[in-house]
UniProtKB/TrEMBL annotation:
<comment type="similarity">
    <text>Belongs to the shikimate dehydrogenase family.</text>
</comment>
<dbReference type="InterPro" id="IPR036291">
    <property type="entry name" value="NAD(P)-bd_dom_sf"/>
</dbReference>
<dbReference type="InterPro" id="IPR046346">
    <property type="entry name" value="Aminoacid_DH-like_N_sf"/>
</dbReference>
<keyword id="KW-0521">NADP</keyword>
<dbReference type="InterPro" id="IPR013708">
    <property type="entry name" value="Shikimate_DH-bd_N"/>
</dbReference>
<keyword id="KW-0057">Aromatic amino acid biosynthesis</keyword>
<dbReference type="GO" id="GO:0004764">
    <property type="term" value="F:shikimate 3-dehydrogenase (NADP+) activity"/>
</dbReference>
<feature type="binding site">
    <location>
        <position position="221"/>
    </location>
    <ligand>
        <name>shikimate</name>
    </ligand>
</feature>
<dbReference type="InterPro" id="IPR011342">
    <property type="entry name" value="Shikimate_DH"/>
</dbReference>
<feature type="binding site">
    <location>
        <position position="245"/>
    </location>
    <ligand>
        <name>NADP(+)</name>
    </ligand>
</feature>
<dbReference type="GO" id="GO:0008652">
    <property type="term" value="P:amino acid biosynthetic process"/>
</dbReference>
<feature type="active site" description="Proton acceptor">
    <location>
        <position position="69"/>
    </location>
</feature>
<dbReference type="GO" id="GO:0050661">
    <property type="term" value="F:NADP binding"/>
</dbReference>
<feature type="binding site">
    <location>
        <begin position="18"/>
        <end position="20"/>
    </location>
    <ligand>
        <name>shikimate</name>
    </ligand>
</feature>
<feature type="domain" description="Shikimate dehydrogenase substrate binding N-terminal">
    <location>
        <begin position="10"/>
        <end position="92"/>
    </location>
</feature>
<dbReference type="GO" id="GO:0019632">
    <property type="term" value="P:shikimate metabolic process"/>
</dbReference>
<dbReference type="GO" id="GO:0005829">
    <property type="term" value="C:cytosol"/>
</dbReference>
Amino acid sequence: MSAEAQRFAVFGHPIAHSLSPEIHAAFAKQLGIRLEYTTVDAAPGEFDAAVRRFFADGGMGANITLPHKQAALALASEVSEAAQRTGVANTLTRLPGGGIAAHNTDAGGFVRDITERHGFDLRGHDALLLGAGGAAKAVAWALMDAGVQTLTIINRTPERADEIADAIGEPARCHTRYWDGLDGECFDLIVNATSIGVTGGDFDLPMSIVQDHSTAYDLCYGAAAAGFKGWALAAGVRPDWFRDGLGMLVEQAADAFERWHGQRPDTDPVYRELRQRY
């Protein structure tokens, strides 16, 4: 590719499965922008050096995925509010003076997908969040900001769920429960932000938490969302009220793209193209 093309990358471990290069290439073609976007597989012990080398060699921006989102925040010299309060970053930008700015686009991507694309008004609903990792932190803040009535967070390691609730600091609206302590409760929205779909395991949750109008949303997509989808449908979620995270992936990528290039792409055609395959 021409030397005039700006360089971008996504860092993760593993990373070969990433759709980010395809998504950013589609955005760039749409807006007539020349760029080079590659994947970088960096093991945890190599991540810091790999990112610094990428930017030192002329890289302009990087997306960050598992397992590096917390480490990405630590190497930044400038941190956005969204990254600061979630404690993780998925977007890095080279600063004019040579430093690195960290941002998190997960929260905005989630809200736009579920509210604008899927028409789910989050205001006034009772939501259950499964998981307490980096993406879960972003979604927890997004749900609170969007006006859910209550947010219940559960995680296999309950202390991590408590940390999120404590950081939010609204005990009347945001609280935690034990994974096996949900009997007798029910929710309008159930969001899976665990890694069970990737690492394996069962969603051994009481099916009574689902109501006849409940929506289920998995931050994963494709095969990784199959386990949670199977549980949700068996529990009574209507097939057309189950959503996976493909739209969130596209929307959060658009946020990063706009941050880097100053133009926001149209996400719908990119989403439709990917939806035919996943």
